[in-house]
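Example for reference:
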Amino acid sequence: MTGGISRLQCIACGKTYDPLEVRYRCDDCGDLLEVVHDLARLRREFPDLRDRFDARLGEPRLPYVSGVWRYHEMILPDLPAAQIVSKPEGNTNLYRSAKLSRAFGLENLYLKHEGENPTLSFKDRGMTAGVSWAVRLGMKTVACASTGDTSASMAAYAAQVEGMQGVVFLPHNKISPEQLAQAIGYGAKTLALETDFDGCMRLVREVCARHPIYLLNSMNSFRIEGQKAIGLETLQQLRWRAPDWFVVPVGNAGNISALGKGLREARELGLIDRLPRLAAVQAAAADPFYRSWRGGFREKITLTAGPTLASAIRIGAPVSHDKAARVIREFDGVAEEATEEELMDAKAAADRGGVAVCPNSGVALAGLRKLRAANVIKADDTVVVILTAHGVKFSQIGVDYHTGRLPGLAAASPNPPIVLPPDLAAIAAALGF
């Protein structure tokens, strides 16, 4: 790959930095940075990007078998292919069925299932980019604060690199056992702290500022570049036609920021001819971004996030708030929130359609239902919902929903197991014969 295509730039004041420096915020104003590519140069040097990406669909070898690095020129064009750390990730299915569409009042509903990534969440797309850039910088220790999925992904990718150590900051007893099992199983040094995610985030930032440790939360601009591939791959699966809407669950707001950045660049590079609208959906117990949107983003609201079954987005101070607010404005976007009952009923509807989704994805689906009921999203709109993790990461929650063991929550469509004696007549009666 040719060099010098990308730089780091502050999203507020525009100050630029060398991408080979370890930094996450602007020295002058303190706001977040982003990786800015010279798109004019990309157009000159790679005038055939769409054909190039399509040709790689049949590539069986690393790195281009990856659903992230297939778009190498748009992700991190200055990163040598030899330094890419990939499993590979991506290549997730885009589900569509008449049953699913009807369940949410639409004619054309697609579910982009990021739970089909190697560690069962969308975080792998960002982490392949973040850990690869850590290799580029020569970093030996990487760290993150996490509500579960980020830690699993970072631990897995760090484990692939000889001599690299992953360090995870987790809120004690606030993630699922399946998520914890991944972090410790992949060999990360796992710190279970008696605080919430926001407390973990504050501490990991201080530790990384004082020691030679590379921070891989979504404030890391290079991680965001990998997450752009969710949108790029969806566009390619739709034969480079943009849908009318993307609906995304929001916690730390990095994913919707990445999605918007990738879509904007895709249009500027001529891959698509129009931009979709975006909908950001939060759990009602942890809805600072929704509240900020309701107030026209005149104030950046933070709060102490309350308990929610959508634990991966239980975040009261989204790090990528400013980036996400910019994207929502640019894409004529909206925000919505979902109660615990709404999110679980929406999750159950997707599950019954044959797609196992996590509670966080249930938040997005519940928001879709509400936006459809309000006619913000029309029945004939083409809608893509980003499912962020696999339902098997939250299997106990699913069992508790169907067996009536979620306190204060009445399931709209319970399907508990039927306990019977080992008797043929009893079985026949239960089956309606």
In short: Residues 123-137 form the longest helix (15 residues). Residues 94-120+223-402 form a domain with the Rossmann fold fold (CATH 3.40.50.1100). The first strand starts at residue 6 and ends at 10. DSSP finds 17 helices and 13 strands in the chain.
